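Sequence, please.
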């Protein structure tokens, strides 16, 4: 399928074909006859980069020479997805590409498929970072994304014959990466370990070992903005032996070990989502990229000046801390200013506090990073001193502001006692200019609960910026059919830059002809996904059934268990004849999820889902009525196929646990209806699309809190709802484990005795809403009308709007001036 693109590059398809031929010859060293699709992919990517080069250089020049403050987005994760089609779109070369590869005798899809998706993130936080740098470039705001170029991204997920998750290494760099440019000349030295000594009345850090940080630059082209920003991902390399020889011989062995291990620092992305593992390597990673990025920004804006005036640093760039992972950058900037540039403490503090802002992405206490002071002292002794001093200063400041000693004690950045630790969220909340949550409810809960003491003392720091998603990737690229229909309906494609224009689709929801066209697009997307699922996974999907999807990391709070228990109960209803054949709405339930490798119950839930899928599939009684599939290794590519094909989106987390969610936005924008709780951004989606166009169920945050207070007993809910009881009994009695009662015993026991996220308490409400869903689904015209209303009213959830909010509320900057 070709796509209409704007802006059109003036390059013709024939010229572009020549450029590709040229790259095949001079980059790949092959003739078009010898070339494989992978060669054509690399050649095309190389040609596209050249098209972007002038804008990239100009953007950097304008950023350095002008007066527009830049944004530095510091993030341990950037989950970018494939680059080729996005780069073609934003350079106006899509049509030329399709024509050129055809002329060269290749299948465009095979060329696109040759790109290996980099998985440099775990989930929502990493994908949000990718959407944000897309929007920054599209709005023409000068920006850097700063992170780590992990050699191994998120693990590749497979399932074994028992349905268990198996993690395989994702060696994405075993494939050519034509987008990344390694810039050896702009490396940075990052030091670790050693001790701090007193020299001439100054504290001097004598590190024990160092790592070379080498930037790999990725162009981030804006859509229709003519601007190209930079994503700079750091690679860790060892220095050569010369450095080691400077160490005292007797320490040689100790010294050589970290040297050899230097490259481990950028070797692997931690496959954790929300729960932290206290690993030394993780702190090394965090310091590695924070330190290299701060030094890099100083180099970018002040060149090699020996005595730059760094009091202007916060006017040059503002740094956003994407959760706590880069928060070690705060003491690092203090250290750079004091130790490397000779500023006094107060001046350094003034610069530092003006430079950083902090976004929190969680409500789970265990996801707020806390580092043992001993570990920081071992790896970064000078930073520990600085953190101690920040904490002292903070305690004094608090004593001036409140008499509440218990509160002061609660707020310590460095905890007291025998094994003190450093609370990174508190450090960020004290030192950052602004602190924000990622949806209204989340920001409110941060203020009321998680960071309450901080918001009491510093209310002006706290703000909300509701997340968003880029319509370029998640509508235009993922859903060409719907995009074309929207452009037809609106008479313009400007909605891709101003997503609120979707509002003008609202009247078309009353136009039966338009609704039918919309329904046809959805059906075609279902067929497309079914074809993909057949080719990729061997699944047989029936596109006439309802596509009901739950995609997100596997976590108890997200409650995949609620969904699978409802599926099991429905299966039992059909088997027992309780539900008549004619009353059944045939459904295909689609799951996509990775579980952290060490997360026992999450992995067991995956195994259960796979085995439920298997049992249902082998049962002729439910054929054509119910099907469950679990495409393994869910990633951005699968998301781009599956979201446009989905009719019902599951956002069923326990209220008060999901910070925002962003797939909920992607689904609404692609015309799915949501069944969801009042959690995260669901609340705002429902407000905008209208309560009639959203299937709400379940307890509210207040009800959840009350239930916790009342000593929640899940067994009562098990006893009270016969469907729930049957479903859990089936899991327990071996129905989904070849008769083995032990397989899921830990899961069953957790449900019946603990059930921290109250899956059982919400089960009945979740079932009750299903009949509303099915009644509406039976009236396809009405269903699709509501789906259109979801699209029309979700323009607010563009990441362009999120970035505009950050510009106004947090960063106080804007786009580079455009030339007349
Ligand atoms: C990851 C590690 C530590 C803390 C939070 C996360 C994370 O991925 N959080 C997710 O961030 C998304 C983007 O803001 C939100 O939409 C999700 O609700 C949140 O779980």
């Amino acid at each position: 399928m070709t796509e209409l693109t704007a802006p059109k590059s003036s390059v013709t398809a024939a010229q572009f074909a020549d450029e590709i031929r040229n790259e095949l010859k001079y980059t790949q060293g092959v003739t078009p006859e010898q070339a494989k699709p992978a060669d054509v992919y690399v050649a095309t990517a190389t040609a596209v980069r050249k098209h972007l080069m002038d804008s990239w250089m100009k953007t950097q020049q304008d950023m350095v020479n002008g007066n527009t403050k830049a944004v530095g987005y510091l993030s341990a994760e950037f989950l970018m997805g494939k680059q080729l089609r996005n780069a073609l779109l934003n350079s106006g070369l899509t049509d030329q590409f399709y024509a050129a590869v055809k002329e060269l005798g290749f299948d465009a899809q095979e060329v696109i498929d040759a790109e290996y998706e980099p998985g440099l993130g775990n989930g929502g936080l990493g994908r949000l970072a990718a959407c944000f740098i897309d929007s920054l470039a599209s709005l023409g705001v000068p920006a850097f994304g700063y992170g780590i170029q992990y050699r191994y991204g998120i693990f590749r997920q497979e399932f074994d014959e028992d349905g268990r998750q198996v993690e395989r290494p994702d060696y994405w760099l075993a494939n050519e990466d034509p987008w990344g440019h390694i810039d050896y000349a702009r490396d940075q030295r990052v030091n670790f370990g050693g001790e701090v000594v007193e020299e001439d009345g100054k504290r001097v850090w004598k590190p024990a070992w160092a790592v070379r940080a080498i930037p790999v630059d990725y162009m981030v082209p804006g859509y229709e903005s003519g601007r190209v920003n930079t994503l700079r991902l750091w690679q860790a390399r060892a220095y050569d032996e010369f450095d080691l020889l400077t160490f005292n011989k007797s320490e040689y062995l100790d010294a050589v070990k970290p040297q050899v291990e230097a490259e481990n620092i950028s070797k692997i992305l931690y496959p954790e989502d929300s729960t932290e593992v206290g690993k030394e390597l993780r702190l090394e990673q965090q310091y590695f990229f924070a330190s290299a990025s701060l030094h890099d920004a100083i180099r970018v804006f002040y060149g090699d000046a020996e005595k730059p005036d760094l009091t202007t640093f916060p006017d040059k760039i503002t740094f956003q801390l994407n959760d706590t992972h880069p928060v070690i950058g705060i003491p690092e900037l203090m250290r750079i200013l004091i130790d490397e540039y000779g500023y006094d403490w107060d001046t350094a503090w003034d610069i530092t506090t003006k430079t950083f802002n902090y976004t929190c992405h969680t409500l789970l206490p265990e996801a707020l990073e806390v580092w043992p002071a001993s570990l920081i002292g071992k790896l970064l002794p000078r930073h520990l001193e600085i953190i101690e001093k920040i904490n002292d200063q903070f305690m004094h400041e608090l004593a001036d502001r409140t008499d509440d000693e218990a509160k002061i004690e609660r707020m310590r950045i460095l905890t007291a006692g025998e094994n003190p630790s450093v609370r990174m969220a508190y450090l960020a909340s004290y030192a950052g200019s602004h602190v924000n949550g990622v949806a209204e409810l989340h920001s409110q809960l941060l203020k009321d609960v998680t960071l309450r003491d901080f918001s009491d003392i510093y209310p002006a720091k706290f703000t909300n910026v509701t997340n968003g998603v880029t319509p370029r990737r998640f509508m235009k690229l993922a859903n060409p059919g719907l995009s074309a229909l929207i452009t037809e309906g609106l008479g313009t494609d400007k909605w891709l830059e101003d997503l609120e224009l979707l509002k003008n689709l609202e009247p078309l929801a009353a136009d039966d002809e338009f609704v039918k066209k919309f329904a046809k697009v959805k059906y075609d997307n279902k067929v497309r996904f079914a074809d993909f699922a057949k080719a990729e996974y061997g699944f047989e999907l029936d596109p006439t059934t309802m596509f009901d999807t739950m995609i997100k990391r596997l976590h108890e709070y997200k409650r995949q268990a609620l969904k699978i228990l409802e599926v099991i109960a429905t299966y039992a209803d059909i088997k027992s004849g309780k539900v008549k054949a004619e009353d059944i709405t045939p459904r295909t339930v689609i799951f996509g999820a990775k579980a952290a490798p060490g997360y026992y119950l999450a992995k067991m839930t995956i195994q259960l889902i796979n085995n439920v899928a298997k049992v249902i599939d082998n049962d002729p009684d439910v054929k054509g009525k119910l099907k469950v599939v679990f495409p393994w290794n869910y990633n951005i590519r699968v998301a781009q196929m599956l979201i446009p094909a989905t009719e019902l989106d599951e956002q069923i987390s326990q209220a008060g646990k999901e910070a925002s969610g962003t797939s909920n936005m992607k689904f609404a924008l692609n015309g799915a209806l949501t069944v969801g709780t009042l959690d995260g951004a669901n609340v705002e989606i429902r407000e905008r699309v209208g309560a009639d166009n959203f299937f709400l169920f379940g307890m509210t945050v207040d009800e959840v809190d009350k239930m916790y207070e009342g000593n929640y007993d899940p067994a009562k809910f098990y006893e009270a709802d016969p469907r729930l009881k049957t479903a859990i009994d089936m899991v327990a009695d071996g129905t989904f484990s070849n008769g083995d009662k032990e397989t899921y015993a830990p899961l069953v026991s957790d449900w019946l005795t603990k059930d921290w996220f109250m899956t059982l308490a919400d089960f009945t409400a979740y079932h009750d809403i299903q009949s509303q869903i099915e009644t509406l689904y039976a009236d396809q015209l009405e269903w699709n009308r509501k789906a259109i209303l979801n699209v029309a009213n979700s323009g607010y959830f563009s990441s362009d709007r999120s970035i505009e909010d950050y510009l106004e509320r947090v960063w106080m900057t804007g786009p580079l001036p455009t030339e007349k």
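The longest strand covers residues 209-221.
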